[in-house]
Design brief:
The complex is a heterodimer of chains A (251) and B (789). Chain A has helices spanning 58-65, 69-75, 90-103, 117-125, 139-146, 151-162, 181-192, 208-215, 230-242, and strands spanning 5-15, 23-28, 54-57, 78-82, 107-111, 129-133, 167-173, 197-204, 246-249. Chain A is globular. Chain A is built from nine helices and nine strands. In chain B, α11 packs parallel to α13 (300-315). Classes of the chains: A alpha/beta (251), B alpha/beta (789).
Chain lengths: 251, 789
């Protein structure tokens, strides 16, 4: 069997915000969404000729991520496949996840959920944790902010919750866009009913993506947005906490 | 801190370090009168007794632990028998910009009229320099290595638990029995041993006498005291000083005072390196603490207050200033006393206890320059203790530093120590490993690895001066392969290591002969049993260290040479050397390629790290196990103090793109700014050398406070520490501060006097550092976290 190769932007060591413990995050190149607040605009395009990125083999990825094994083991960390959208390179992702499992490395999948359900479920089955983005519950807002409908994403989330996956829901908080208290209450109501969700992470928007986008020659469609205040984040966390869920502010 | 300790702390911070001529005058007068009358050990002991009889006794207002090395806090004595300051030295000390010492006119006068005329030509420093060969002087003068014993006496040691269960009177009993057991009929050294033992006995007597003088002074003060509370305290002080160190201490207060008198005796007798340290203070104090609480004679607040006044005593003692070249090498007030917290007990169980936690709180509240502190973290150490230590570290004082207690044990087992002695040992000075109370572990000098490479690249000639220093190991044209080049480096290294070791043996012998340390010998096993001095092999263990500086700079230079000259072939070696010779003037593109386009140590890149390991293994092969003259061996340490600045100032531009005369890398840390892959990569790179083969390595990491916020920050830091130690890393210390804060302090030093940063193996006030060192600390990589998301 020929080993699949994949396109990645970079490998970030000592990542503390993509799951538990000390992690190495592998940023895949290419994303089907076009989020207004994207903080990794360089990973948007699937095309290696656009922006940074390189083609790598599974073995190359493994050789790099295995280096920090001592730190994963003392911190309860591991590898996170993020992006871009890792599910957009399913063959390569599954091979990476299998290699991690084979090598005894804990692996997390960080996904926007916009992919065929069977791809998501296959990857989740090989992952120790799924970080699942919920960017907006209001489909109109979702379309406007990301360019796609959230219908498939919500369906996939329901399917994922039916599997045995451990799930962290991650919600970017972008003031004026998706930070309505009503939206949060709706989200809490949805998430509460899903099994397998261990916690909800509210990710405060930061302007780094705008700066990067400008440097890459893109002009963001919206923003920059103001950063949410700690008090505002606490207020947004309230509906989740009231529903008995663990909430984490930040990644 | 309560009101008393806050005031004592403030007074200690505000006091101006001043040179005191008292000790120099007493020692000079004693030698003038007694020279030639006694054996050398007795001469030293009688001189020490004379000091204890005559030196000023100081008991400050509100003090609980008493005794000063000088006539008052921060009044620093000098040791002309070791190194005699010239009038020019005194004038530099009193006017230099940083770490200034006030030198009163009386001190200049004493030196001019009495001290210098007597000691000129007699001081250890001059006698050593006279005996060391020309090749040694050439290498020393070129900045290839330094020599510790030209400034201070050997010392570098730490006390164990013996003084908490036995008094000096008990040791005198041991001495009497050892003298009685001498057999003049069969032992040709019996006379030497008797003189040494007599000297130890006299030293005990002197220290007891010195304590009693404090008892008398306290009683005299009590007689005139109108405040009834202070009156009672003074009488208690008198009682304590009559009890210890003659007898074993009975309570917490006596235990601290017993140590403090031993400390003062060691640093009055001689000016040993790193002053002296109480070692595992938490373990030693625990029985007194628990008993006091049980019996109701001690409260936690009372123990805290005693510890805080004890801390102030350390801070009252700036290091005696140096002379000559190493004055630039290491300008600091710190005298390197270092507390060990946690660690292991001799039986292998976890050594941390409630006093360890109490001491962490005291360290946090006092945050004084001295004493320095470290935590010894073993596999058995609880996460709670590590987290407590990290929460103190997070405040950004630069201490405590963090050691791998299991590696410390393993390193010592490799040196042939017993398991129990190894566990009861720990770390002192910056990072140096030793068997506390049982070992003379002598640091002999720093060694400039980049300078040795420079010589290898110039066929043995120092390009700075044009002088031939090393053997001809091949012109640049002749070094046709990287292996040729590395071979030339190894040959130069071997040449200078030989010179250094031969010098060490000579110095060691002269010190043993001329500068015995009878008091230190009393409290170091097995000097009494052997009838031998601490400096002459009396200790149970005797290791001698050479401290290698700048493995990061060396590695990056080797890596750049291998890549650019031998693999890519984009420059020939002569072309590269010619660019380096002009400090890259007109070669900015090349310099940029060397800086940014070559693989650097500290990024977990095997290409560079393998070269580091190759160089490290070469050091071990050349140094480790080479016998000293005391039945012990030479060993390798990887630490710089601040010597990387001095060594950089004598080293031209290097192949890694470093500019001429700028600082080299410190310890085993990467070159400032060369690490780009975050802290895990740095730790992985650093762990590739075999730390267990050293007597200590020093790794500095700097974090911005934002990375360490909350309990998650603490957990991440703890995980970094645990993982590094799993990989046998010896030591890591964290600077927690952002560069802007440092720049602000540089601009407005007057507002940031108390800003403490980790320098190398120790912490120092940022504002007391030279501009070059300040800039370097700012330039060290700030490890930022990846952005949230």
């Amino acid at each position: 069997m020929s080993s699949p190769r994949g396109r990645i932007v970079n490998v970030q060591r000592f990542s503390l915000h993509d799951g538990p413990g000390i992690r190495t995050t592998v940023f895949f190149k290419g994303c089907p969404l076009d989020c207004a607040w994207c903080h990794n605009p360089e990973s948007r395009s699937h095309d290696l000729s656009e922006g940074p990125g390189r083609e790598v083999s599974v073995a190359e990825v493994l050789a790099e991520v295995v280096r920090d094994r001592p730190f994963y083991e003392t911190s309860g960390g591991g590898v996170t496949f993020s992006g871009g959208e890792p599910l957009a390179q399913p063959e390569f992702l599954l091979a990476c996840l299998e290699a991690c499992r084979h090598g005894g490395l804990s692996a997390a999948l960080d996904t926007c959920g916009f992919a065929p359900a069977e791809t998501l479920l296959a990857a989740a089955a090989l992952s120790d944790l799924v970080l699942y983005d919920l960017k907006a519950l209001d489909d109109r807002v979702h379309r406007e902010a990301t360019g796609v409908s959230n219908a498939a994403i919500l369906e996939n989330l329901a399917a994922l919750a039916q599997s045995s996956a451990r799930i962290w829901i991650r919600m970017p908080v972008v003031p004026t866009l998706n930070d309505g208290v009503g939206q949060m209450a709706e989200a809490a109501d949805l998430v509460r009913r899903l099994s397998g969700v261990e916690r909800v992470c509210l990710l405060p928007y930061h302007a780094l993506g705008v700066d990067k986008a400008l440097r890459l020659g893109h002009r963001p469609r919206f923003g920059p947005f103001p950063s949410p205040s700690p008090e505002a984040l606490d207020a947004l966390a309230a509906p989740f906490r009231a529903a008995g869920m663990a909430v984490q502010i930040g990644g | 801190m309560n009101e008393r300790t806050a005031r004592l702390r403030r007074e200690s911070l505000d006091a101006q370090p001043t040179l005191s001529e008292e000790r120099a005058l007493l020692v000079t007068a004693f030698y003038q009168e007694h020279e030639g009358k006694h054996s050398v050990p007795m001469m030293r002991a009688l001189c020490f007794r004379d000091l204890c009889e005559r030196k000023t006794v100081w008991i400050g207002e509100g003090e609980l632990i008493v005794g000063e090395r000088g006539p008052r806090p921060k009044a620093v004595p000098t040791y002309p028998e070791l190194t005699c300051h010239s009038l020019e030295d005194l004038s530099i000390l009193s006017t230099r910009e940083k770490t200034r010492y006030h030198v009163p006119p009386s001190c200049f006068e004493a030196y001019e009229r009495t001290v210098i005329p007597y000691w000129r030509g007699r001081s250890m420093r001059e006698r050593l320099f006279e005996q060391l060969p020309a090749e040694w002087h050439e290498a020393y003068g070129a900045g290839i290595f330094t020599e510790f014993m030209e400034q201070r006496a050997p010392g570098h040691t730490v006390l164990d638990g013996k003084i908490y269960t036995r008094g000096l009177r008990d040791f005198r009993g041991d001495i009497t029995r050892a003298v009685a057991a001498l057999d003049f009929a069969t032992d040709p050294e019996a006379y030497d041993k008797r003189e040494e033992l007599r000297a130890m006995d006299t030293a005990c007597e002197a220290a007891i006498l010195y304590a009693e003088r404090h008892a008398e002074a306290a009683e005299a003060l009590a007689a005139g005291e109108t405040d009834s509370r202070r009156w009672a305290e003074l009488l208690k002080i008198a009682e304590v000083c009559r009890r210890v160190p003659a007898h074993a201490p009975r309570d917490f207060h006596e235990a601290l005072q017993a140590y403090w008198f031993c400390h003062l005796a060691v640093i009055t007798e001689l000016n040993g390196w790193d002053a002296f340290s109480p070692g595992h203070l938490d373990q030693h104090l625990l029985p007194f603490y628990r008993r006091g609480l049980e019996e109701g004679t001690l409260t936690e607040a009372g123990a805290r207050e005693l510890l805080e006044t004890f801390f102030v005593k350390f801070n009252n003692h700036p290091a005696p200033p140096k002379v000559g070249v190493t004055a630039a090498e290491s300008g600091t007030y710190t005298d390197f006393a270092n507390l060990n917290l946690g660690g292991l007990l001799a039986d292998g169980s976890d050594g941390s206890n409630e006093v360890s936690h109490l001491l962490l709180e005291v360290i946090d509240e006092m945050h004084l320059l001295q004493p320095s502190s470290n935590v010894q973290i073993s596999r058995k150490t609880s996460d709670a203790f590590l987290a407590h230590a990290l929460r103190v570290i997070r405040k950004g004082y630069g201490f405590p530093s963090v050691f791998n207690a299991d590696a410390v044990v393993e390193e010592q087992l490799r040196q042939g120590k017993t398991l129990e002695d190894a566990r009861a040992g720990g770390c002192s000075g910056c990072v140096e490993v030793g068997a506390f109370g049982k070992e003379a572990y002598i640091l002999t000098g720093y060694f400039n690895l980049s300078k040795v490479l420079e010589l290898a690249l110039h066929d043995g000639v120092d390009p700075r001066t044009g002088t031939r220093l090393g053997p001809a190991t091949g012109s640049p044209e002749a070094l046709g392969s990287f292996d040729d080049l590395f071979g030339a480096f190894a040959a130069q290294l071997s040449h200078f290591v030989e010179i250094k070791i031969r010098g060490n043996l000579l110095v060691e012998r002269m010190v043993a002969e001329l500068m015995p340390a009878p008091f230190l010998s009393v409290i170091t096993d097995d000097c009494i049993a052997k009838g031998r001095d601490y400096n002459a092999g009396g200790a149970r263990y005797n290791n001698t260290f050479i401290q290698f500086v700048g493995i990061g700079s060396l590695t990056d230079s080797l890596s750049a040479l291998k890549q650019v000259v031998y693999d890519e072939g984009s420059e020939t070696l002569p072309q590269l050397l010619s660019a380096m010779g002009t400090d890259f003037e007109g070669h900015e593109v090349l310099r940029k390629h060397l800086l940014d386009g070559t693989l650097k140590y500290g990024n977990d890149e095997d290409f560079a790290d393998d070269l580091m390991v190759r160089a490290f293994d070469e050091l071990i092969a050349l140094v480790d196990g080479r016998p000293n003259g005391k039945g012990g061996c030479h060993r390798v340490e990887m630490l710089p103090t601040t010597c990387h600045v001095y060594f950089g100032s004598v080293t031209g531009a290097t192949p890694d793109g470093r500019r001429a005369w700028t600082p080299l890398s410190e310890g085993i840390s990467p070159v400032q700014g060369a690490d780009r892959k975050g802290p895990t990569a740095v730790l992985r790179s650093a762990a590739k050398m075999d730390h267990i083969k050293t007597g200590g390595t020093l790794l500095n990491m700097k974090f911005t406070p934002s990375l360490l916020e909350g309990e998650r920050g603490i957990a991440s830091l703890a995980a970094l520490v645990r993982a590094y130690f799993k990989m046998d890393g010896h030591h890591v210390q964290f600077n927690v501060v952002n560069a802007d804060a440092l720049r602000e302090a540089q601009r407005h030093p007057e507002e940031h006097r108390d800003l403490i940063v980790r320098v190398a193996g120790y912490s120092d006030y940022f504002c007391d550092l030279s501009r070059a060192l300040q800039d370097e600390i700012i330039a060290r990589t700030e490890h930022g976290a990846s952005p949230a998301g």
